[in-house]
Specification:
The chain is mainly α and 317 residues long. The protein contains 11 helices and 3 strands; from the N terminus they run βαααβαααβααααα. A 3-stranded mixed sheet has the order 2-1-3. Helix 1 runs antiparallel to helix 3 and helix 1 packs parallel to helix 10. It is globular, with a radius of gyration of 22 Å. The termini are far apart.
Length: 317
């Protein structure tokens, strides 16, 4: 009997191009990305600190908002190494670091999608069935939702890590992207990636399911809002829901565009794909604190009180 030894070669490093076709402008492109990251860092840290220190903010809405802020911090921070490409031409990344970054970005993206769905469900219960709010969203239910938010994306992404490790890469090691993501790595393999592509699409289908469920929730919310007798109440509810829907569109549209472009967008310029792919890892984390935080009266009041008290102490000194 003849035994054949099959070895899988993983390159020591990959080379991240950045934004193909716009290499000469990397320095300028880095400026808005840096500013947006700092906004995300400051905004989400503020939300977490306010919810942590203000013991009055213990409603389910603030529970989900705290989870969202923590995920946003993790998501935008996991993509921060791309600033090294823009500033220091640090294009090299080890195979292990690349796979880790891929896992983290996709996992945190999935977590953000699930927590946005949970927040839509929270608003649906609060507006459509307010009398049953406390009986539906019990501490046990909230704990279960929290486990689903954390564990479901992790379990979905673990097979992708295994599938990536099984691929032989031969000599190809140039990734036309700012950060490592699944299909960008898989396309470098010198073997069939059908299983990777099929599984990637199945994971993307869960994102589409989240979008559909969020849409259904807000459709019911809008129906309930239009039935409100007070015009001011309708205007306030529509204004709030409109902002939430806008943020969700900013997150879901670029992420779905990026996932589907890898499979079907052969005629889309690479720099367009990469720029849009960067949007969903930096823009939503920067916008969420202002949309969900600034429009939440309790959080605004706490920040104003803290700021004015500090200013008062400073003036007194």
């Amino acid at each position: 009997m003849i035994h054949t030894n099959t070895t899988t070669f993983h390159p020591d490093t990959f080379f991240l191009v950045g934004i193909p076709g716009l290499e000469a402008f990397h320095g300028w492109i880095s400026l808005p990305f840096r500013s947006v990251y700092l906004m995300a860092l400051l905004g989400n840290a503020t939300i977490l600190l306010v919810i942590w220190f203000d013991h009055m903010l213990r409603e389910p809405m603030f529970y989900f908002l705290a989870i969202l802020s923590a995920i946003d911090l993790a998501l935008c921070t996991s993509s921060v190494p791309m600033l090294g490409i823009f500033w220091f031409d640090a294009h090299e990344i080890s195979f292990g670091s690349c796979v880790t970054q891929m896992f983290l970005i996709h996992t945190f993206t999935g977590m953000e999608s699930v927590v946005l769905l949970a927040m839509a469900f929270d608003r649906y219960v609060a507006i459509c069935v307010p009398l049953h709010y406390t009986t539906i969203l019990t501490p046990q239910v909230l704990a279960g939702i929290g486990v689903v938010i954390i564990m479901s994306p992790v379990l979905l992404m673990l097979p992708i890590v295994d599938l990536t490790h099984r691929l032989p890469f031969c000599d190809a090691r140039v990734i036309a992207h700012c950060y490592c993501e699944h299909m960008g790595i898989a396309k470098l393999a010198c073997a069939s990636i059908c299983i990777n592509a099929i599984y990637g699409l199945s994971v993307a289908s869960f994102l589409l399911l989240d979008v559909a469920l969020v849409g259904i929730s807000y459709a019911h919310i809008l129906c309930a809002v239009f039935c409100l007798p007070s015009r001011d109440a309708r205007h306030k509810a529509l204004n709030t829901c409109g902002s939430y829907v806008g943020v969700m569109c900013v997150f879901y549209a670029p992420s779905l565009f990026s996932f589907l472009t890898h499979r079907f967008g052969k005629n889309i310029p690479r720099y367009v794909h990469i720029l849009v792919a960067n949007l969903y890892v930096v823009i939503p984390p920067a916008l969420n604190p202002f949309i969900y935080g600034v429009r939440t009266k309790q959080i605004c009041d706490y920040v104003v009180r803290a700021f004015t008290s500090k200013c008062g102490v400073f003036l007194f000194l």
